[in-house]
Amino acid sequence: MVATLPRTNELVTLAHGSGGKATRRLVEGLFVKELSNPLLDQLGDSAVADGLAFTTDSYVVKPLFFPGGDIGDLAVYGTVNDLAVAGAEPLWLSAGFVIEEGFPLDDLRRIARSMATAAAKAGVAVVAGDTKVVERGSADGLFVTTAGVGRMRADFGRPQPGDRVLVSGTLGDHGFAVLVARGELKLESALESDTAPLNRLTESLFELGPALRWMRDPTRGGLATALNELASSAGLAVRLDEQSIPIRPEVAGAAEILGIDPLYVANEGKLVAVVAADAAEEARRRLGGEAAVVGELEPDPPGLVLLDTALGGSRIVDMLVGDPLPRIC
Amino acid sequence: MRYVDEYRDGRLARKLAAEIAELAAEPVRIMEVCGGHTHAIARHGLEDLLPPEVEYLHGPGCPVCVIPMGRVDDAIALAAQPGVTLATFGDLLRVPGRRGSLLEAKAAGADVRMVYSPLDALELARLEPAREVVFFAIGFETTAPATAITLLRAREAGVRNFSVFCNHVTIVPPLRAILDTPGTRIDAFIAPGHVSTVIGTEPYRFIPEQYGKQVVVAAFEPLDLLASTAMILRQRAEGRCEVENQYTRVVRPEGNPRALAAIAETMELRDTFEWRGLGFIRESALRLRPELAEWDAEERFELPGERVPDRKACQCGQILVGAIKPHECKVFGTACTPERPLGTCMVSSEGACAAYYAYGRHAA
Amino acid sequence: MCLGIPAQIVSVQEPGLAVAEVSGVRREVSTALVPEAGVGDWVLVHVGFALHTIDEAEAARTLELLEQVDFGMGEPMVPPWTPSFAGSAGEAMRGSGESAVSPPPTAVSRSQNGNTKDRP
Questions:
Q1: Complete DSSP assignment for B282-351
Q2: CA distance A151 to C119
Q3: Which residue of A has its CA nearest to C115?
Q4: Which of A72, A105, A284, B1 could cross-link with A114 by S-S, CB 3.0 to 4.6 Å?
Q5: What is the pLDDT at residue A327?
Q6: Which residues contact A84 (CB under 8 A, 6 or more apart)?
């Protein structure tokens, strides 16, 4: 007797969680469709109104503890960063915990401490929370959901052809570090997550005034996803220079072995910013470290991200389709 | 020496491009038959460096692309069985069968797990003795030795809850089938580098000797591909027609005898096997030898084994023989996209259509 | 899936099992197909197996051939078409007048490609 499965075109799959096209379809086609309102319909990472920014995020990272961080500081920094790149000064966070029966209290304490340290580093406070416990098997250890409120500070200009694209440092560190830490692919490396608060850096960029056009923290889906969103919303093209993009050798090595492009891999302590051409050098200086100018906006073809390869050819950097790295945020 | 960066040097690329331009006296169509080559050409934008006379065609060298829907359905049927864990390479997760992919089957409750190596699948079987672990084996002669060694380990260690669903295929028969197809307009071949590390360079000699077309075995970095293209053009300019090896740092004329022996010890040729888009080709695929029946998923489990014809709109078959380019397919980018692929050329990251769509849509 | 990556063997666990490394990332690989490979050797890794050793001398020779590209026609050549990339349109070639099958130079010249990646 050959077993059969239920019809599957009406089910959620892992692809829906990857941050790419399937996620967008789910969000726009289902959630936004049902919940529609003027603020939500803008599809920003944060909602901005009345001088405030408001955002929410869920953290399902596996493993919970990884080199360079854990689900706790990831949750705090991730929320702080969403507010920061929206142009806000992050103020208050809430944290909800869904805990699986049998979860060790020591681990929970370690995570809470991690969050406290992270909040202090970022200059924010966790002011509200909630805790639920579910039966063994109903939640993979721990899931954390946050919300964050900030006060709007930035006065963004409009992205225009000629503007430059900058990143604040090396790409792909977090996603690959977590993937290696998960152990399923049996890789070993010294890779560490780059999880860190971005609000000091963003405050520095706010001082550029309208020369600052757009910012994102390229988490799930990586730089490629963030820039595709930019190209789409601005109706412009983004042209990247492959040789300018900073990538650690270990990340390049893991990328080669696994055949995963670092441009699509999550970062948790990096920002991508678009600034007017004449402010690019100043912006780079303010970002410091390994920040680099990696590309430029062009009028055509609108909505596409292009990459000039080291070889001298060019190719498209498309929106992510599949799910190369599940559960890395 | 790292063996990768050196082969991506922009300055050398331009030199090679100039040489190619000088040598290309007339239009020449070069077919590469390896998903890795298709991907490298697209990813580095190599066609931008070529003069208009030189055209790359993309042949059936992507083992994921040539799997017929019926075999995917069989894998899903295996995964759907209670107690079965189907271990598969990541590339196979989104290949559409008749009623969805393995990824969708996983969402519906089938135990489908991604592995990087067949040895990981065997390890799974050892760690979970209550589960029946089936490894969905695909690939050309590059990958068959890995499956072969894994089978030998399984037998040696007496692991009884492990089996292989074998879909390994061989490179020579489809090449011959394409050359024999009337209307084929291919002038030369870039032969697959990694298959050749196993089988060597001798098996390709029938192409220059019987069909009069040049062959160069190429490595995978962009400079290697450009150098191989130049070698083909140089052969043509000098009136030569032979098999040349550009991948000398890894490929030997005799290949890897140990790998070939492992395949011979565990597998044998099937009489016939269906290739998506190419139909049934004789002696083009492998199955487990009878003495390994215990580890053969097709012997241990009952499979639907149905032949599922390709969707009418799907033109994968014509892409795979180089008759049309991806952007010439009527449903490319419209009814067939990476999110909703009609055929496997669009699903696999090494498929010609996926590469064109992801990397080169704007140039089409 | 065709992924065959050059990696260097950094340790041997037991006969047939080694650890290979690419840019600081390590993985266990089976050396059943290349039992002669040892620590320090470079191998091609595919789905967890070392498929073949990489011949360093051949690799160097391949690079030299790439560096040496010329037309055997003895004159600098300008591409007859305009490349689509910036910066090198009309760049003259360094044709040396030697035949295409001249022996490689004794010193291997390493190209400067401005790549910021580290090399071991």
A1: ET-BEEE-GGGGGGBHHHHS-------PPPTT--HHHHHTTSS-GGGSTTBTTTB-SSS-SSHHHHSTTS
A2: 46
A3: A243
A4: A72
A5: 53
A6: A90, A150, A197, A198, A199, A201, A202, A203, A215, A217, A271
Q: What are the pLDDT digits (tens) for C56-66?
A: 888 777 777 77
pTM for the model: 0.82
Task: Return d(Cα B255, Cα B253) in angstroms, integer.
Answer: 6
- The answer to whether residue C119 scores a pLDDT higher than 80 is no
Tokens describing residue B8 = 């991506």
Q: Which two tokens stand for residue A194?
A: 């780059």
Stretch B299-328: mean pLDDT: 85
Name which of C24, C114, C115 is nearest A253 (Cβ-Cβ). C24
Å between A227 CA and nearest CA of chain B? 15
Residue C104 CB contacts under 8 Å (≥ 6 apart), including other chains: C61, C64, C65, C68
Q: Please state the ipTM of this predicted complex.
A: 0.89
Question: Would the CB atoms of B12 and C117 count as touching at under 8 Å?
Answer: no
Rounded Cα–Cα distance for residues B331 and B333 (Å): 6
- A253:C23 CB<8 A: yes
Radius of gyration of chain B (CA): 21
Reduced to 3 states (helix: H, G, I; strand: E, B; else coil), residue A307 is strand
Q: Which parts of chain B fold into alpha helices (H)? A: 10-23, 35-43, 69-80, 102-107, 118-127, 144-157, 172-180, 193-199, 206-211, 222-237, 257-266, 297-300, 316-320, 344-347, 352-360
Task: Label residue B47 exposed, middle or buried (CB < 10 Å: 0-12, 13-18, 19+).
Answer: middle
pLDDT for position C70 = 47
Beta bridge partners of B279: B275
Q: Which of B13, B120, B360 sits opposite A315 (nearest CB)?
A: B360
Polymer length in residues for chain B: 364
A2-27 pLDDT tens trace: 455 655 567 888 878 877 778 888 99
Q: How confident is the model at residue B270 (pLDDT cuts 50, 70, 90)?
A: very high
The A-side interface with B (CB below 8 A) comprises 1-9, 11-15, 21-22, 25, 184-186, 243, 256, 258-259, 301, 304, 306, 308-316, 318, 321-322, 324
How far is A80 from A127, CA to CA, in rounded Å?
Answer: 14
- What tokens does B38 get? 């298709």
- Whether C49 has its CB under 8 Å from any CB of chain B: the answer is yes
**Average confidence (pLDDT) over A265-281:** 97
Nearest to B179 by CA among B171, B139, B217, B193: B171
Instruction: Please tell me the distance from the alpha carbon of residue A103 to that of residue A128, in angstroms, as a whole number.
Output: 22
Cross-chain Cβ contact B8/A13 below 8 Å:
no
pLDDT at B20: 93
Distance CA C109, CA B96 (A): 49
Read off the pLDDT of each residue in A68-87 and give the average, rounded to a whole number. Answer: 97
Which tokens in the block code for residue A153?
């500070």
Residue of B44, B103, B104 with shortest CB distance to A311:
B44
Q: Which of A111-120, B220-229, B305-314, C68-77 has the lowest mean pLDDT?
A: C68-77
